[in-house]
């Protein structure tokens, strides 16, 4: 019996994307973009997390996010060192990440790295040891992430390190 104070469900809306940890986004982009027909959506550097990402929509709508470390202390660098390249996490969009966290923690799943600081992208993670070997990212967002960035930023810009994510989750060309 589930206690009454636990939300009825986690409010999952959809699978947003599968993130793949890679050493070289450009090499992986050749597979997911060119060979498999993926359409580049957006990408850039998250200097805070020390990662570079590029996201692609595959035919049929499935999205793949390629993530690679920009520095040795980035969590993705540790992941690559321990496990090698491969699936890093599965992102589920939820109606309200706080409700999802309450549901999962109330049912004794281990939720970590809850970040509610941005109104544009709020997230939490369910540890792999609590999710059958899968790192789950739960997120709610006020933005559309399934359309190409309107800024004219290209994959070449991302691969050259010319793009950075701002505090409001926009990918913009670096100044200078």
Could you characterize what this model shows?
- The protein has 176 residues and is an alpha+beta fold.
- It has a single domain (12-173), classed as 2,3-Dihydroxybiphenyl 1,2-Dioxygenase, domain 1.
- Helix content is 20%, strand content 36%.
- It has helices spanning 25-35, 75-83, 97-106, 155-159, and strands spanning 12-21, 39-46, 51-57, 63-69, 86-94, 111-115, 121-126, 136-141, 163-165, 171-173.
- An 8-stranded mixed sheet has the order 2-3-4-1-5-8-7-6, with helices on both faces. Strands 9-10 form a two-stranded antiparallel ribbon.
- It is globular.
- The model has no long low-confidence stretch (mean pLDDT 93).
- This is VOC family protein.
- Keywords: Metal-binding.
- Pfam families: Glyoxalase_4.
- Residues 14-141 form the VOC domain.
Features:
alpha+beta, 2,3-Dihydroxybiphenyl 1,2-Dioxygenase, domain 1, 176 residues, 8-stranded mixed beta sheet, single chain, globular, 4 helices, VOC_core, two-stranded antiparallel sheet
Fold topology:
Elements (H helix, E strand, L loop, with lengths): L11 E10 L3 H11 L3 E8 L4 E7 L5 E7 L5 H9 L2 E9 L2 H10 L4 E5 L5 E6 L9 E6 L13 H5 L3 E3 L5 E3 L3
Parallel strand pairs: 1-4, 5-8
Antiparallel strand pairs: 1-5, 2-3, 3-4, 6-7, 7-8, 9-10
């Amino acid at each position: 019996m589930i206690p009454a104070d636990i939300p009825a469900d986690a409010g999952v809306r959809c699978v947003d994307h599968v993130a793949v940890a890679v050493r070289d986004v450009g090499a992986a982009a050749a597979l997911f973009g060119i060979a498999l027909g993926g359409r580049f959506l957006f990408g850039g550097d998250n200097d805070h997390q020390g990662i570079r990402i590029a996201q692609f929509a595959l035919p049929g709508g499935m999205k793949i996010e390629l993530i690679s470390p920009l520095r040795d202390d980035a969590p993705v660098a540790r992941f690559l060192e321990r496990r090698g390249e491969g699936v890093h996490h599965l992102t589920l969009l939820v109606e309200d990440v706080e409700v999802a966290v309450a549901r999962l923690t109330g049912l004794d799943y281990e939720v970590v790295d809850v970040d509610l600081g941005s109104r544009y992208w709020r997230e939490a993670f369910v540890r792999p040891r609590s999710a059958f070997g899968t790192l789950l990212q739960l997120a709610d967002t006020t933005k559309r992430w399934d359309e190409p960035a309107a800024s004219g930023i290209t994959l070449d810009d991302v691969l050259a390190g010319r793009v950075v994510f701002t505090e409001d989750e926009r990918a913009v060309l670096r100044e200078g």
